[in-house]
Write a structure and sequence with these properties.
The protein is an alpha/beta fold. 46% of the residues lie in helices and 13% in strands. Strands 1, 2, 3, 4, 5, 6, 7 and 8 form an eight-stranded mixed sheet that branches.
């Protein structure tokens, strides 16, 4: 039986530190626990998602060279050949490394392709048939050719907003201008409701940010926010998803709720 259509989601914000990688890791974990097949593609040279998810980062990503940098340098090969295992059998990974930034600067010389068609053959039909969701974790949007390429093959873009960082709200202006251009080339792409992270209950700053976001974004806002908690830093230090580190923690349950909301939103829009 043919697999249902793959949903390709790119996480964006033209600001660092808002929780994109945390969301990529834990949203993927929640979706995978719903018995969905997920591929996480790490386009951020910090490689936080990669080091947290990879079953053996040193062996598979570094020693064996299965990473985004070498994928970009490949000629005629699909991304499926660069996938590595994770500790969750429903999650696979195309990992990043610290040298990805320098690779991105050279990417035009690797393939004789239009720079904005880079992912068309790398993320081909064969790969898409393997997964229900492909999730791109990204660096700040403005600086990344790779992020733009991800957006050009995506069905959905997902703005991640930190409740404790006014700059992450201000950054939407640049993001919206870039998305106007992206939509000229990828007419199918649409926004998921904005996700607010690092939300502090009974915090004036968080409440004000939520109200400001409701006014600022044309897309809706998920009613479920991700709470600010030291469990996030603790799980990062152990290189684990929150579901692995503390599966019953409030933040893990919030990501489960968000995953359910995303799934329902996509089904409703189809």
């Amino acid at each position: 039986m043919a697999r249902k259509k793959t949903n390709i989601i790119t996480l964006i914000c033209n600001k660092g530190g808002v929780g994109r990688s945390t969301t990529a890791i834990n949203f993927a974990s929640s979706i995978a626990n719903m018995d969905k097949k997920v591929l996480v593609c790490d386009l951020d040279a910090q490689a936080n998602a990669s080091s947290s998810l990879a079953l053996d980062y040193g062996r598979d990503v570094v020693d064996r060279g299965k990473n985004m940098t070498n994928l970009l340098k490949s000629v005629g090969e699909g991304a499926i050949d660069y996938i590595v295992e994770t500790r969750n059998e429903n999650i696979k990974l195309i990992a990043s490394t610290l040298v990805l930034d320098s690779t991105e600067g050279e990417v035009k010389s690797f393939l004789d392709l239009n720079i904005f068609k880079l992912f068309d053959h790398l993320f081909n039909k064969r790969l898409k048939e393997e997964f229900d969701y492909i999730i791109f974790d990204t660096p700040p949007l403005k600086s990344s050719v790779l992020t733009l390429n991800a957006l050009l093959i995506s069905d959905w873009y997902w703005y991640i907003l930190s409740a404790e960082d006014q700059w992450s709200l201000d950054a939407r202006i640049v993001t919206e201008k870039i998305m106007e251009d992206v939509k000229k080339l990828n007419k199918k792409i649409a926004p998921l409701p904005v996700l607010i992270t690092k939300f502090v209950k009974n915090s004036k700053q968080s409440d004000q940010m939520k109200k400001a976001a409701l006014k600022a974004f044309s897309a809706s806002i998920f009613k479920t926010q991700i709470s600010y908690s030291d469990i996030i830093a603790k799980s990062h230090s152990r290189r684990k998803a929150i579901h692995e580190y503390s599966p019953n923690h409030q933040v893990a349950l919030e990501y489960d709720k968000v995953a359910d909301l995303v799934s329902k939103f996509i089904k409703k829009k189809k």
